[in-house]
Amino acid sequence: MSTLKVTLIDVGWGDSIFLESIDENEQHHYALIDSNDTSTLRSSHIFLKRHFEKKGISVPSPSRLFSWVMLSHIHADHGQGLQRILKDYGSENFWYPKSNSNPIFFSKLQRYSNRYSRVNEHQAIDNKMEPPDFGDVEINVLWPKEDQIDENENNNSIVISLTLGDVSFVLTGDAEIEVWNEIHNEIPANTRFFKVPHHGSSNGVFDGANTPWLDSLPPEAVLGISSHIRPFSHPSPEVVAKFDSKGREYYRTDKHYHLTYATDGADVKVKYSHYG
User: Fold this and answer.
1) How far is CA 154 from its chain centroid?
2) Domains (ranges, CATH) in the chain?
3) Could you tell me if 108 and 83 are in contact, meaning their C-beta atoms sit under 8 angstroms apart?
4) Would you state the torsion angle of the CA atoms of residues 152, 218, 221, 202, taken in this order, to the nearest 10 degrees?
């Protein structure tokens, strides 16, 4: 039976999202979005190492373990740990958004991807790209639009939907409300998991009194928040209050630790490590 699992790793700040797709032939496919690891704090690397070693896969791996690794947008709290990830785990593809920004960590990532065989291909992507299927899971890029680059780096975030059977998951990076005003109507009607953009900050949810993506989501969609408590106090109390007032089901990494959302294409289950 085909399965998709998406885990928001509790990295304390920033983002790191591990994805596992098991196809109908019981083949496992792996992907990762973002890593904010530093030389001293390696939360996502440690999570991955433990996961793969439980499966009997040694790390560093002799082959490329990931089907794809993605940098959602070019901010260090989302990408500074990716070079070590690519080196130790390897990836067939490395994807990132177009941007006018070229910080040192990103330059190093591109040079590494050019020089070493641990990465097969790397490219900037937009909504005109048709990514290969992730096992039995279809990937669609909702944002950014072709040839559209924003001066606000958060608004260059790659937004994707992952669809298995009758269920879609949506992953959002740090896209702020300007993005959602443009694409809230493109959120799949069968969305059952939605990663709250920009760690649950107000600028990722509210346009004045309006909440475009929240109002476009089906009521049964479960929310997930990669919290960024220090130094930004995300999620915003205003956002949490709005979710509560609408009776939305949500989980947050600062309260529930690692969050795993799994689907077989019909139902969705949520697993987390502890209660808030």
Assistant:
1) 14
2) 3-272 (3.60.15.10)
3) yes
4) 30
Here the tokens at position 225 are 């928040």
Question: What letter represents residue 23's amino acid?
Answer: D
Asked if residue 144 has a cis previous peptide bond (ω within 30° of 0), the answer is yes
Query: Please, are residues 194 and 221 in contact by the beta-carbon 8 Å criterion?
Result: yes
Nearest-angstrom CA–CA distance, 225 and 8: 8
Strand-strand pairing, 91-97 and 66-70 = parallel
Instruction: Note the pLDDT tens digit of each residue in 69-103.
Output: 999 999 999 999 999 999 999 999 999 999 999 99
Which of 133, 130, 110 minimizes the C-alpha distance to 122? 110
Q: Which tokens hold the place of 87?
A: 């080196």
Instruction: Report pTM.
Output: 0.97
Is 27 exposed, middle or buried, given 0-12, 13-18 or 19+ CB atoms closer than 10 A? exposed
Stated length of the chain: 276
- β-bridge partners, 161: 140, 170
Q: Which two tokens stand for residue 211?
A: 């909440």
Q: What is the pLDDT of residues 9-68, one digit of tens each?
A: 999 888 999 999 999 999 999 999 999 998 888 999 999 999 999 999 999 999 999 999
**Amino acid identity for residue 166 in this structure:** D
